[in-house]
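Researcher: Next entry in the queue.
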Amino acid sequence: MISVPETPEPGNGRPGPARAGTPRDLVAVMTGFARTLRAAGVPADHERTQSLLRALSHLDATRPRDVYWAGRLTLCASADDLPRYDRVFRAYFGGRRAGRGRRAGLVVIRHTAVPSGGDGGDERPARVASASAAEVLRNRDVAAMTEAELTEARRLLALMRAGRERRRSRRFGPSRRGRLDGGATVRETLRRGGETARLRYRAHRARPRRVVLLVDVSGSMSPYADTLLRLGHALLRAEPRATEVFSAGTRLTRLTAELRHRDPSTAMDAASAAIPDWSGGTRLGEELRRFLALNDARGATVVIASDGWERGDVSLLAAQMARLSRMAHRVIWANPHKGREGYRPLTAGIRAALPYIDDFVAGHSLAAFEELARLLGGAHA
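Model: Structure for this entry, 381 residues:
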């Protein structure tokens, strides 16, 4: 029989999993748990998460054993998921209070020892970063990371939760205030047999603002291109219907379909196979002209991740950036070199683009990606 991983109880400094003060707290905690399981390879999709929440409504969510078995029976699809489920359960609930909301950005879990299998016997350290090590990793330049650090950075990047700025939709929906909805008011009155009903209102719905990410995959960007594409994968996971990802070098390649796969490694393999110009030259002006000819950037937040080493016509890049700035809601340029001390925008491409950029940010580290995610959520630099 598989034993439940020992879960800390309240009062010993390491609270149990379901100390949620309200149902909303519980939903937030368990949704975050399911998201972490998905990053670890367990198919804890939306439908399974809803099944977990329904199960917990009939159980005592303050009991770790109830939470463990409810999650195991609803979120796992096969026996192969059980060891990963045990590791994530122990790591996720072992280092934080379940009733507290999780900070936007990278999920950092405290280092702890967890069972490697479901029999409760052989224990080994979980593959999660300690708080101090993760903080150092967050601020380290991707180009200077070791292979082990890159592996951990990619894992943390897969757990990134990027908020999205909301925009007003043309469609209306029911609301407590706004425009009087005469049709709905009359229908409500008829349902009541002609008795006067309360007035019904409608207002514009809010939708996530579309984000378009263009990643420079030229030779000068090779230390950063892989990580930036993984950032695109995380953005797609967060808002699949409001995100587009392209690679740009000597050719413009749409990678949205390839990066939709749930598993980051599989998505990156598909994207790599689709990109014909890895580590080539840079003709951003030509690629932007092609992008604007084939895609609608109106109202979108456009992120260009490049160091600005333009090998094409710089005047063409300036003209296309001017067009883009008139169409897009916001233009953000992420330059990996901007994070270095003493950086100055001296390359011809950057000088041509700067007058048309709303936010010029770094793009060299996990902390820089967190800042970029904050901007996509509607914050200002």
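Model: Residues 191 and 197 are 9 Å apart (CA to CA).
Researcher: Noted, moving on.
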